[in-house]
Every structure is written in C-alpha cells, then in structure tokens.
Amino acid sequence: MLDKRVTEKEAFDFHSKGKAGKLEIRATKPLTTQRDLSLAYSPGVAFPCLNIEENPELAYDLTNKGNEVAVISNGTAVLGLGNIGALAAKPVMEGKAVLFKRFADIDGIDIEVDTEDADEFINCVKFLGKSFGGINLEDIKAPECFIIEQQLRELMDIPVFHDDQHGTAIIAAAGMINGLHLTNRDIKTAKLVVNGAGAASIACVELLKSMGMAHDNVILCDSRGVIYQGREDGMNQWKTAHAAKTDARSLADAMKGADIFFGLSVADSVTQEMVLSMADQPMIFAMANPDPEITPEAVREVRDDAIIATGRSDYPNQINNVLGFPYIFRGALDVRASTINDDMKIAAAEALAQLARADVPDEVDAAYGGTHLSYGPDYIIPTPFDPRLISAVASAVAQAAMDSGVAQRPITDMTAYRSQLSSRLNPIASALSFLYENVRANPQRVVFAEGEEDRVIRAALAYRNEGYGTPVLIGRDDEVSQKIETMGVDADSGLEIHNARLSSDNKKYTDFLYERLQRSGVLYRDCQRLVNQDRNVFAACMVACGDADAIVTGATRSFSVAFEDVTRVFDARPGEQLMGLQVIVGAGHTVFMADTRVHEVPSAEELADIVTQSAAYARRFGHEPRVALLSFSNFGQALRDSTQRIRDAVAILDVRKVDFEYDGEMAADTALNHDLMQKIYPFCRLSGPANVLVVPTLDCGSIAAKLLQEMGGGTVIGPILLGLENSVQIVQMGATTQDLLNAAVLAANDAQS
User: Which CATH superfamily is domain 165-423 in?
Assistant: First the structure.
C-alpha cells in the first residue's frame, strides 16, 4: 500500500529535478591545479598503491574504504512492493545510502545485483568486498537472505549485516528491554509470541534468545498457525530451529497468558479478544507496515495497562530501523570490526534502551509540542532525530567489538571518541527535523497568499498531506479548483479557498486595517481597496484577526512589495529588529547570515540587535554562536565611517554583556579561516571559525547570499523573516514547491512562539 501523504508527481519531481537521483560523489581533495591532479592520479597515486600492495591495512588510511558501506540488493523483497527486480530497487538503495550519510556520516554506495540465484549473488558480493569497509544487505527475500548473509559472513573479513533481519530485531529488543523494566519482568521467564516467520521474525527470536529468553517461552507463528515441534507443513530449517513444545495450534491459543507480542505479519491479524487473553501489563509490538496487526486505539479499548509499539511515526514508540543501522556501522567501521556479532547487536539494543531512560533534550521535546517526553509506557524507545543517538549507540557498538575481540583498531580514549561522534553531524539537520515534527504535533492554519499558482497549490497540498495543518489558499475559487482538478487531485482536497473580493470577512478586516492606519493618511476606502484587491493584505488581516496562524507569500512578487504589504498590518515584535536571515548548509558546516533582507545600512545599535537575534536563532538550531561582524577591513586596518559603525556595534555588545562569542570588524576570510585568524589576529575573541556572519549593508548580504546559493554547492535555507509580531515568511520569486513548503513549516513553527 502506497503512502498517500505524497503524490506520485511530488515523488517523481523530488527524484528527477536537478541532478537525477539522491546521491553524487564529491572530491575531498583540491583538484584545481596540475600539481593537484598529479598527486590525485598519475604519477602521485602510484605511491599509495604500492604501499597498500605491501600492507593492505593501509587502504583504510589512504582510501575511503574505512567509511564506505555497500548497500546491496537484488530487489526481491522491497519495502511493501515485493519482488520488483534489481533496477526498480535502486531508488530504495539510494535512499538507504542517503540515510547512512544523514545519520552517521557514512558514504553508502548502492549496488543492485540482477540475479535471484543465491550462489551468483554471493560470488558477486564476495569479489566486490575489497572495495568497502562493510556490506549492508537489503530487501532480499527469505530464505535466500539467510543463506546469503551466513555465507558472506564466513567468506569476508568485513562486517556483513542484513538490516531487514537484524535492524528490526535490535530496535524491538531495545523497546522490550524497557518494557520488561517498566513491568518488573525478567527476560528469562517472560513469554513471547511472534506472529510472522520471515527474516525479521527469525532474527528477533534469535537475538532475544541470545539475550537470555528461554527457548520454551517463545512461540513462533506463521500463516498456518503455531510452529510446534513435530509440525511438517510449511517448515524449513530456520522455522524448525525455533519450533516450540506446546499444545497451542493457533495464534489465539498462543496469545493466552503471553507477556509479549511481536507482530511482523499483516494488518488486523490480532483481535481484541486475543489482547484480553494476554497477561497483566502486556507488551504489544504490532510492527506490520503500513497498518499494524492491531491499532493502539483498538488495544486501548480493552486494555489500559498495555505497552504498545508500532512501526508507524504517528504513534508513540516507533520501531524504526534508522535508530540502529547507521550507528551500528559507524561503531563497527571506526574500530575496523571484522564482523557484527551478537555482542554488538545486544550492545546497540541496550544503548538505545538506556538512552530512552535519560533526560530528553529540549530540542527533542520541542518536536512534540513542548510536551516533556519522559521514560514510561509511551516512551520506551528514543525518537529517530535524537542528536545523542550517534554517540550513544556507535560508542557502545565499538566497545562491544573491542570486548568481543573482533576490533582490528581499538579505540583508546572512548570519551574523546564520543565527543568526536557528537560533532560529526551537522546539528541543523536534526533541528530542522524537530521543527517539522513539532508542526506535525501542533498543526497550524497557514495562508498561502498566492493561491492560484501551481507550485503554491502543490505546496499547500503537501502541507496538508504531511499532517502539518490546514492550508488556506487566497484566490478565485473557480481558478484554484480548476487547477486542482487538472493536477488530478480530488475535489475534496482539504484545501480552503478564500476569494478576497467576495469574502464575508471583508468588512471585519477593513475595519481592523482602518483603525490601524487612519492616522497615517489612509482613508477607509483605501483600506477597503487593499483588503479586496491585495492578497497579502487580506492574508495578513486573516492572521491579525485570529482566522489563521501564519502566512507564506513572495512567489509572484518581489520581497520589497510583499514586505510593504504585510507591514501595513503587522509591527515589529517589541524590542526586536525586522531582519532577514539565511542558513547556508555545506559539507560539514553551517553558517547563519544576517541581515540579508531589510536594513539597507543598519546603524550600530541596529547591528548590535541583529547580532543578538541571529545568535539566538543559531542556538535554536543547536549551534553555539560565534558571531563575526563583517567588513572589508580587519580590526582597524582601514578606518572609515562604515568600519566605525561596526566597531561601535561591538562596543554596544560589550556594554550589554551578551553570553556568546562575537568580534569585528573582520573580513569574511578571516572570520571563516580560524588558522588565519589565530596566525595574524591572535587577539580575536572567537574560539573557532565564525558560524554567524552579520553583514554591514543590505547590498553585501543579498549579493553574498545569492552567490552562495547559486555557486556555493551547499543548501541555502531562507531567507527567514524574523522580528514581526505575527508569523510571516516571504520566499524568493523563483521558489520551488519544496521552498514554499519549507517556508510554510517555518512560519507554522514560529506561530507557536
């Protein structure tokens, strides 16, 4: 079943626009001169080749082998799509590789092997093994997946891991550890029923037994019923290994008195009667996707003492493999583990369980509407975007590899290693994820002022489909409805359409606007005209009068026009400056730049305010601010009126005694090159390269931001409008559907503050 939160066109556009697919290869060394090329390739490359020939272990030091994982599939068991073949599986494998990079900074390389013959597949992977630090097997049907993994683990001296099996097992085990803890149970005596006997189910049973669960306390079921000792129908060696000595023959029989249920089967296979028959405080992990074996709502109707987990993100306690595989491989690669053994899997599960018991960071709480998440029945597993996952899980896996003797390069300082792990990822990615989850948990009404534009309509549909709230389109009803129909969207699309000219709220909005502007030379009929004819003004009045929460505009008009429209209705927030901020995300770094939108030549006082607001915004995204006030001059090299203004701003900040690092005036290269900064200007107050850049004029900010956007090779978020008393985001006229959606989510999030 396909997820209806996204349309086929949205998905097609996402994968096809710009560079096709989701991956590219980037050089990590400079390749600008002939000498660079001579070092990278011939003749310089001969030296590392000869060194590796003499000592193969040097491949980890001289190539990317130690940070490269092959994501390999034959496409025989893809997600919920089944046997779609190797080529059709490539988008999924690229997606898996992207997750490796996003969550653990591992370079995943997708490889699709076009054979269903297990021996051919094994031979192919075996001969590719020297290229990689690890092998992640993906979406291979049972029972071939068991054979392939087992043989490759025996043949290869690098980690081989079938995530469909072990990833689910590890995350489910983590949840079960905490479930046992909360219900005062012992794994040695707990009784488990597993419905489904595929790869993931078998792996769950094997892992839990290795953790101490008694063989006779586990009943495995398949479509034919209980897998019991002596059964012959539909059996294989893996099922036989876990056949139970029991009189139970059906799932209903097996569930009676059970402490724990693991579902890895099909929707609606568990009834309320079965739930009622379980022991006190049962643990029900209904992990079938997209629809669980029984919904949490159905469980709650008959049991108020159950601990429930599913595979879905819209319920608490999601069993999500992304909590495991990136960090398991991270730890394994960092100690050059020869395999991923049970000790490492158990360590990962225990680390996840312990993390769920720890105090939850504020940024994670914010993703759930500010409700403080705390260890308990509805929080037994960490959230996928918890920034602590990489340090907690990877370090535990690395330690287990060393303790079990499979680490070939042990880590001597685990404290330093954990710190290095924490700094490995850019925190803004997690922060943005929290932001999106926060809006999903606290839906908002967002007005899309240019509602007749195709890309605006698509953004509004995406906003609704993702569960962020109610999108409101401003436009002519017939025009918008026709375009929605042309897009192939149901007429009952969940989109509100408001025609400004015909709205029954016109008088209310006109009266509001006139009361606000009547002493600014504006007549009542002028206000009436603005409300009737200007969609931005109408949208702003909707928010001001409490009929909506936030606005997105700018797709069809310049920033200055849209800004003038909304500031007719809204003032600056008391004590703040109106300003534009852009976030530039590159490989391994994030820089915040302000003001790129509002102040043409800010005064020293205004610059100081911009610095303070920018620093606060950087902190919201998990960065400790180091602010550079930029100029063409470094620390008095050229005293001009323009540089004196910046020096005065620094003096104002000194008086204010702010709680973050700042300095200026300085040139951009000084600000971003800490080695240069320390060498020439050792007195500079910044302890590292600046991550917040405050520009001296609007010209500088706008030019720099757009140059970076077009040529910088990174991602530019924004411009983000800050300082208004109500939530408004003004996109650039060339904004894509995704840009508009991002702006809507930013606006919805700000509307809550």
Answer: NAD(P)-binding Rossmann-like Domain (3.40.50.720)
